[in-house]
């Protein structure tokens, strides 16, 4: 079986910034390591929701793994809680202050 590494550079695109001559931080950055990945690997883009929608990171990650974000509503609080090893019981709510 071929080994695959999926790297998700979440939020990397960002918005253009006037101090960067209206380039995004990624466009303005020097990225030799990322450039070498692009040359040696397969790169692509996945659109996970309708054009113009602003999905959350959690919705995008779920969509990448085949879950419909409209059907499976997930929020940052529960992901953060589970990632910290907290036990969240059915009916409990996990909120995030991020």
TrEMBL record:
<protein>
    <submittedName>
        <fullName>Uncharacterized protein</fullName>
    </submittedName>
</protein>
<dbReference type="InterPro" id="IPR017850">
    <property type="entry name" value="Alkaline_phosphatase_core_sf"/>
</dbReference>
<dbReference type="InterPro" id="IPR004456">
    <property type="entry name" value="Pglycerate_mutase_ApgM"/>
</dbReference>
<dbReference type="Pfam" id="PF10143">
    <property type="entry name" value="PhosphMutase"/>
</dbReference>
<dbReference type="GO" id="GO:0046872">
    <property type="term" value="F:metal ion binding"/>
</dbReference>
<dbReference type="GO" id="GO:0006096">
    <property type="term" value="P:glycolytic process"/>
</dbReference>
<dbReference type="GO" id="GO:0004619">
    <property type="term" value="F:phosphoglycerate mutase activity"/>
</dbReference>
């Amino acid at each position: 079986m071929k080994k695959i590494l999926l790297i998700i550079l979440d939020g990397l695109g960002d918005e253009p910034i006037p101090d960067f001559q209206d380039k995004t931080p990624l466009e303005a950055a020097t990225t030799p390591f990322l450039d070498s990945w692009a040359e040696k690997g397969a790169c692509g883009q996945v659109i996970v929701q309708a054009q113009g929608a602003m999905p959350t990171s959690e919705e995008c990650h779920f969509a990448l793994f085949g879950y419909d974000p409209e059907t499976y509503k997930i929020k940052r609080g529960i992901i953060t809680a589970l990632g910290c090893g907290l036990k969240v019981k059915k009916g409990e709510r996990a909120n995030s202050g991020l």
